[in-house]
């Protein structure tokens, strides 16, 4: 093309582009919704909360179910802490989200965000936004599941970014002495479901939006150690200890609505009383098993590289001398985050976070 003609075309395109550009502060609203979703999904929670107030179109994007899953898949790991602001009176609990960001400096960069629900339901204790007498159960795709103070109380599913809650219907009669419950997601039906069981081996499922609990048969019996973050491949995972001392691992698939037994590492021989305190989690898309021996300070970590295959369990880390004194050897250590420099951020019981 002749250089003069090319310059003329470029000027024409620029002129047309300038004519099409809107004037005033609303120019950003002209961005396509897909591009807005792509940009917003890469922001930190603190910034994202403020973006809800920019305009209605942004609020619509942030409120879309697909955005919540997209945000969860891209966001760095964070810690949700339930604190007691009045330790003497043991009154009032606050949920605080801490975003963990690795930086070049030796210390981690922390960005806190207080959880302040905007809806008026019994969950709110006072004007400070306290979440009184309610327990934090688990999370799934960025949504939280909270329980009431009573055994047969309703459950709450909430979106921390939007500050909105959904309450489940009252539990059907005949279920008490709850052993565990948790929130999950079925990718096949695009539905969130809440599982609730009891020590009488009964299990019920609640699909969000239906308003009805359904009986789904028998559940594994035993003392459940239900982890906060063990949702993988559409299923929740947990360790169950029977009164005899035998320990097993189970899962519940929210698509098939079936319970399954997860095979442990081969050295966890069946029909043998275990001495380890076992917890489950997720690490790098694999099922994580943490075993802390009761009579020592040894802490083992395993990952199931091929999901469902017992032979794929691999011990990748052993930590010794965790507790400085024997009185602390039964502490509950659980990994929270593996840093790029090889260090591990772990929780210590319910009162501290340590860096190893």
From TrEMBL:
PROSITE patterns: FBOX. SUPFAM superfamilies: F-box domain, Galactose oxidase, central domain. Residues 25-70 form the F-box domain. It comes from Rosa chinensis. Gene3D superfamilies: 1.20.1280.50. This is Putative F-box domain, galactose oxidase/kelch, beta-propeller, F-box associated interaction. SMART domains: FBOX.
